[in-house]
Amino acid sequence: MTLISLQRALAQFAVEREWEQFHTPKNLVMALAGESGELVEIFQWLTPEESAHVMQDDERAVQVREELADVLAYLLRLADVLNIDLEHALAEKIEKNRHKYPVHLARGKADKYTQLGG
Amino acid sequence: MTLISLQRALAQFAVEREWEQFHTPKNLVMALAGESGELVEIFQWLTPEESAHVMQDDERAVQVREELADVLAYLLRLADVLNIDLEHALAEKIEKNRHKYPVHLARGKADKYTQLGG
Amino acid sequence: MTLISLQRALAQFAVEREWEQFHTPKNLVMALAGESGELVEIFQWLTPEESAHVMQDDERAVQVREELADVLAYLLRLADVLNIDLEHALAEKIEKNRHKYPVHLARGKADKYTQLGG
Amino acid sequence: MTLISLQRALAQFAVEREWEQFHTPKNLVMALAGESGELVEIFQWLTPEESAHVMQDDERAVQVREELADVLAYLLRLADVLNIDLEHALAEKIEKNRHKYPVHLARGKADKYTQLGG
User: Fold this and answer.
1) For every residue of C64-111, which 3-state class applies, written as one string?
2) In this predicted complex, what is the ipTM?
3) Cβ of C48 under 8 Å from any chain B Cβ?
4) Is C47 part of the contact surface with chain B (CB cutoff 8 Å)?
5) Alpha carbon of B81: minimum distance to chain A alpha carbons (Å)
6) Cβ of residue A47 closer than 8 Å to a chain D Cβ
7) Are the CB atoms for B3 and B87 separated by under 8 Å?
8) Is B22 in the D-facing interface, judged by CB distances under 8 Å?
């Protein structure tokens, strides 16, 4: 399914259950943060190395996959009620970041663009 | 751009800057949580009604759009390094939720499925 | 119990279980974010008015109380391993905020100090 | 300053600025999550080892200290408006966790209590 069709399926899911009343931007932002918190909990005690192999544990792999789906679900609902074209927004952000993080300054550094000098 | 092409652009962006070393699943989960925290900060003092009109304020509209793009960016990177098909994962999750939240029990209620009775 | 004695109890709890290896600042920050995410999930679908009466529901009251305790627990552990005096840090921050948010400019406004003018 | 006197100072700070209208539990929970997100952002690209030395960088040390103070501030405001005794709540939670995480089962393991067997 494409992003748009998933977004429509989620909207219909909400309409059928009369959940639109709960889906204010404020509430959806909280739901997104809640799901990202659940994702954090899965990874909090893992070393970076363990985290790189998390999908080799079948039980955890299912959890991680479902949490990513949940984050995407609320992100799509949020974009829908705010009337934001997510893919377009990200394409523009990537262009913007090309200028904020020029290769010759940002290479191998995790610094924020405000600290890159130049 | 499609989700896949955005994912590729983000991967290339990271490779060009030698950022793959930072993009462990653990770190990307933190980055996702950090961006969702920034989104929360935009909405924290708004009433639900104000949140519904947030895009009418030009300055805030730009912020909200960029934060959603940032969340999507890290979500796509995370799915990429974990080798998860996000759209497929969400399609499956929606199916699963149809059973967890049957219309006749969930209608008009924000309860978790464990509290829906049946 | 005072904050210091709680902090000592938590440190001892970790030592007894050989959990110090997991309690790096990075991991504890994640645990704190995870717990604050659980708190968000309790409140995400409530209206502001419902949230003001959340303690009248016995089951939810217990949950909220435990989540606040969990957040405090990880905050204390974090301050401990980073050797930060939390109460002192907060006293200083309040002083700083007195200057960032002067009463005559901040009255009745939820704006960030950078937007207060003056 | 003690926790109670800090809590009173924060309440007075809010009253002086007529901010009580913004301090619903729902909004304060979001503010807490926002601050914990800022803390996450400081640590997201650090290795666990680097995170253990974060206070040796003067600039970062100031940031970390202020973010911990901010988290504590909102946690205290939240406990205040919900009428929860934080220290008491944590003392009880520690007792509860003694039973959920018995030393002989939990030693050296980061598992959740539901996975400890016994």
Assistant:
1) HHHHHHHHHHHHHHHHHHHCCCHHHHHHHHHHHHHHHCCHHHHCCCCC
2) 0.96
3) yes
4) yes
5) 8
6) yes
7) yes
8) yes
pLDDT in tens, C69-92: 999 999 999 999 999 999 999 999
Q: Which residue in the set A33, A47, A110 is minimally distant from D33, CB to CB? A: A33
Residue C81 · residue D55 · CB < 8 Å: no
Q: Which two tokens stand for residue A88?
A: 């377009």
Chain B CB contacts of C48 below 8 Å: 47-48
- The Cα B105–Cα B98 span in angstroms is 11
C44 and A38 within 8 Å at the Cβ level: the answer is no
- The string of pLDDT tens digits covering residues B81-104 is 999 999 999 999 999 999 999 999
User: CB distance from C63 to chain A under 8 Å?
Assistant: no
Query: How many residues are recorded in chain A?
Result: 118
The pTM for the full model equals 0.97
| Whole-number Å distance between alpha carbons of D48 and C79 | 16
Q: Is D67 buried (19+), middle (13-18) or exposed (0-12) by CB count in 10 A? A: buried
Contacts of A41 in chain C (CB under 8 A): 30-31, 34, 37
Do the Cβ atoms of D110 and A45 come within 8 Å? yes
Comparing A98-112, B10-24, C40-54, which segment has the lowest mean pLDDT? Answer: A98-112
pLDDT tens per residue across span A40-73: 999 999 999 999 999 999 999 999 999 999 999 9
Distances (CA, A) of D72 to B7, B75, C13, D16: 38, 29, 22, 20
- Residue that has been written with the tokens 């494409």 in this structure: A2
Above 60 in pLDDT, residue B118?
A: no
Percentage, residues of chain A above pLDDT 90: 92
B83/A90 Cβ within 8 A: no
End-to-end CA distance of chain A: 43
Read off the pLDDT band of B116 (50, 70, 90). Answer: confident
Q: How far is A64 from chain C (nearest CA, A)?
A: 15
Contact call for residues D82 and C54 (beta carbons, < 8 A): yes
Residue A75 · residue B72 · CB < 8 Å: yes
Go through the domains of chain A in sequence order and give each one's CATH number: 3-84 (1.10.287.1080), 86-118 (no CATH)
- Which of B18, B45, B47 best probes binding to D when mutated, by most D CB atoms within 10 angstroms? B45
